[in-house]
Amino acid sequence: MYEVCVVRNDGKDLEILERLLWHGVPKILASNFNQKYLQSSLCNIISFGKFSFLPGKSPIALVGGAGSGKTLTVVKLAARLKAGGAQPLVISVERAISIGARVLQAHMTQLNIQYFHAIDVSSLKLILRERKDGQPVLIDTEALDVYGADAHAILVEIRAIARAQLCLTLPAGMDAEESADIAEIFQKARTKMMIATKFDQSRRVGNIVAAAACGLALTEAGVGSNIVEGLRRLTPEYLSSRLLHQGDPAMLGREIY
């Protein structure tokens, strides 16, 4: 789980410490923040990153439990790439065609984006041969039983077959300790990155800090259902703004959105 380093807190830090605790950041973790310099503390305790979709880069495979927001996030990333002039290849990996896969296919058809459905990792390997000129590849994986005995093996297989970078989708607003447990499972399977979904639907986002502190780099936050504008970079500045805010995220308005 998250590592603990001792940082002295004095009375001046109390207000921000209380805000972190209000958000559900575990006390043992929150007490390690130098709350006078929240942004720099975030950078010291957790990592921030961004996706690279340069030609020839590894596919990005979104992984996570049921209802974690993988499919909608794939749609948003694909729409962003398309708007930027790229032609991504989008693949859904599921043993059966679910409602989510049908929704993904419908969006890709509307956006005129190349889409395939793979029933297993062997099919995925064949479909990846359709990749042209190192185009960006987004993979929407099947919902995972994160505590299942085969979870680790499934993640390792996807990463090996697709030579993909694994990115966990984790909803904001969950229990922080549970989120840290989930993040640790994925991190042990060499998942490197994380997207915080449902960031606009949660008042408390401390679980995202707890999960990221387990070794996953924060990349993006889901901030709306709009497929073009529904993602934004999750930077230290943006996250600290959310952590300093108590209440309905919609009340933040244009201040940080």
TrEMBL record:
<dbReference type="GO" id="GO:0005525">
    <property type="term" value="F:GTP binding"/>
</dbReference>
<dbReference type="GO" id="GO:0006614">
    <property type="term" value="P:SRP-dependent cotranslational protein targeting to membrane"/>
</dbReference>
<feature type="domain" description="SRP54-type proteins GTP-binding">
    <location>
        <begin position="57"/>
        <end position="245"/>
    </location>
</feature>
<dbReference type="InterPro" id="IPR000897">
    <property type="entry name" value="SRP54_GTPase_dom"/>
</dbReference>
<dbReference type="InterPro" id="IPR027417">
    <property type="entry name" value="P-loop_NTPase"/>
</dbReference>
<keyword id="KW-0547">Nucleotide-binding</keyword>
<protein>
    <recommendedName>
        <fullName>SRP54-type proteins GTP-binding domain-containing protein</fullName>
    </recommendedName>
</protein>
<keyword id="KW-0342">GTP-binding</keyword>
<dbReference type="Pfam" id="PF00448">
    <property type="entry name" value="SRP54"/>
</dbReference>
